[in-house]
# Entry
Amino acid sequence: PYTRPRTKAGYLKKSEYVYDAYFDCYICPNGQILSYRTTTREGYKQYASESEICKSCSYLDNCTQSQNHTKQIHRHIWQDYLDEADHLRLTQMNKDIYAKRKETIERVFADAKEKHGMRWTKLRGLKKVSMQAMLTFA
# Structure
């Protein structure tokens, strides 16, 4: 699902840094490069700036609160796909389809829960619960 950016007020947002896919780095608004450092176990690439360059930067107060004057940006390894999904989310065709969801798909599940006893089951196991669901929908 979409989650809004959680940047502190007065600080530069991640979207204000430009990602360069060819060199696999970020470029800050002052033109400095945040180079790739490592990939975490959670699947995020870490990009960090050079502290020597950032010490004298005019954007430092709006960029980071880091004690060593280093800005870090995290980018998911599938971020290109997430960006494409976010782009599609904002198209008019997808907005129309999503508006119909509450009338079609969600209504079917609500009726199944309320009218056909699918809120809880007394059966255990995937096979038995699947049998109950098939009988309900039949």
User: Anything to note?
Assistant: The chain has two domains: 14-86, 91-137.
